[in-house]
């Protein structure tokens, strides 16, 4: 058996500590699968005396991450610090130093992935990041490799456990958003400051990574249209239930056609109603799932825990085995694939469907007036349901596919109409092909 | 861009014709993803004048498969003929000739995989076979690579679409086996001779492949305990429904411990009841899904179409891209990994749970007598339900985990008891951890 491969771990929080644990516990299996033993040579932390989930031999801990990744004998660097800096500088330094890198850093990849991919290319080293999207669920490798002979047309993902937990709770108990968030916080599914999850930043980063791989095009977080779930009401969820649907925060990556007939990529994160019969509808609590549609394979779904120290560490170590084997073989895996270089479709031109609930005066001609407003903006109506009477009359309209610009203009128009008292719920509808 | 890679396709049936179609339609994308164009140089068929789904340029068709795979200029061979011979000889000849091979041949891999893996090793070439299990669903690559840093403990798979269609039909309509089979045949989900599917041979081959990869141990079809679904009755399905469960034909691969405390592998295919709340229970019609449990990742599920020309071709071409890239880089992917070399646990020592429905005389002491029979064989009872009275009295017993030998001895014992009129249903129960 070869000489050991030397591994440095950056970060010893919930993921890093599980990585360190598994490197020890699975050492024999890792060595057999890689073809050489793996030796942990250092763990970079912010404070030496911080409390941790596991005991790290004291000689391995260091606060000098830069010195660790530039050690001449380090072969493999695992970055599980998170955030933009110093993670970016450390990964770049590691690659420049000739190390192969495994990271779980979705925010960094979504913001500045190309810089890292180019550095890996230049160094001739691997940069793997399966753990960056949907935790333990193998989704990047299948997209990049298993579906490499196919044409992926759409990816629909539930890629944020916190928001799925909150929406699932709202659906099962009828709770409002604030109440469900509080419960998620009490149970440890949401952080004290839940902004990154609730406002869709986390899901948008993952959407950018998924779209880049699925469509062989550079997509960054700023290309992703993003809406969070803070405005989802108990009434929205109840309205979805009436339609035999459920509200989910979806990351949606689609191959679409521009007005000029070119392929383009549309990437967005927003709450949406999907039919209960859709495989994604049964994803409960904090679980994640990614639904992929491709021309030849048809519909695939990948399901599992989307976060957590130990599941994320599983994904990190899977990458580590591949990267280590490549290193021993003197080769590297597939680098960035951005040859298709498709345009990103602006949200306004993206075609979606809307569910709109409208409080109206209950008098003759209301339905005709509302239908006319839709028609004026070129939006075709799929169904209208009228509920209640007098002071409590409500129309629920579900449209056919139209551009998001047409749909939002329709809603703005409705809000200005005399007979419309209020537009109480506006939500996109996904998961059904027209 | 490099010189073209030359591809030979063996077989032009439902999968082969889709492979040929996609090689043409996706040529530009394949070239960009591989880094070199792919040129189809021949398609081996049994009869030149057979009807086919696509038109193959006449100069490419040949009936001499052996001559095709041993052409000195062939780089890649795709084998989608199926069956043991001549597929095995052709793959061996192709590898010996220096070609890399992609196959979808589960029967061959399950019967004689090691011969092929050794030939690939000796030739220093790739042998990839993602399409052999669960069609388009990426499951082998995730098991082999994504979970390489984890310890897989169990794989539960619905890996045969025909039997899932039949059992789903029995569940949704109350039909008996014969009637559901007939419908499956009419709709093209079952063949005129349905033996390979219905008797579990197809699923057993896939179970052997899954177990080999999951547990790094050579497992062949003869190591798999196999029971088909021909004896599943409408009463079994109804009884499952009473328990809020559903009957599925499962491929079950488990890491178990022998009496001597060693790790061992238990692999079996049989109909089983699983709770309706289990993710596998919602796999309808002819879809496939594979549920994986591992120590760090937890529970994952992979879902999609398990058969069909186009989905299977997607998996074949995904492998083709990887194998072609490896070839250009002068490297090969991970070969067979059988280092763990675990023993295969005999079915009698495998621990399972039983659901047993017993027609009994309705008199005092019956329950005690039945319970005593279970206890005599060391089987602990989880629940007993008593239904009906007088001539129609029935006990439904669900056991805790015991060895299959203890459980089958208990059933044999029950059948000999005076107070037992008949044991009407015996089925294993899976998908719950004890």
UniProtKB/TrEMBL annotation, chains A, B:
Entry keyword Cell cycle: no
Cofactor(s) listed in the protein's UniProt record: a metal cation
Main enzyme class: oxidoreductase
Reaction it catalyzes: L-homoserine + NAD(+) = L-aspartate 4-semialdehyde + NADH + H(+); L-homoserine + NADP(+) = L-aspartate 4-semialdehyde + NADPH + H(+)
The ACT domain, residue ranges: 355-428
Keywords carried by this UniProt record: Amino-acid biosynthesis, Methionine biosynthesis, NADP, Oxidoreductase, Sodium, Threonine biosynthesis
EC number of the protein: 1.1.1.3
Pathway in which this enzyme or protein is active: Amino-acid biosynthesis; L-threonine biosynthesis; L-threonine from L-aspartate: step 3/5; Amino-acid biosynthesis; L-methionine biosynthesis via de novo pathway; L-homoserine from L-aspartate: step 3/3
Pfam family, one: NAD_binding_3
Family from the record: Belongs to the homoserine dehydrogenase family.
Function description: Catalyzes the conversion of L-aspartate-beta-semialdehyde (L-Asa) to L-homoserine (L-Hse), the third step in the biosynthesis of threonine and methionine from aspartate.
Protein name: Homoserine dehydrogenase
Organism encoding this protein: Nocardioides fonticola
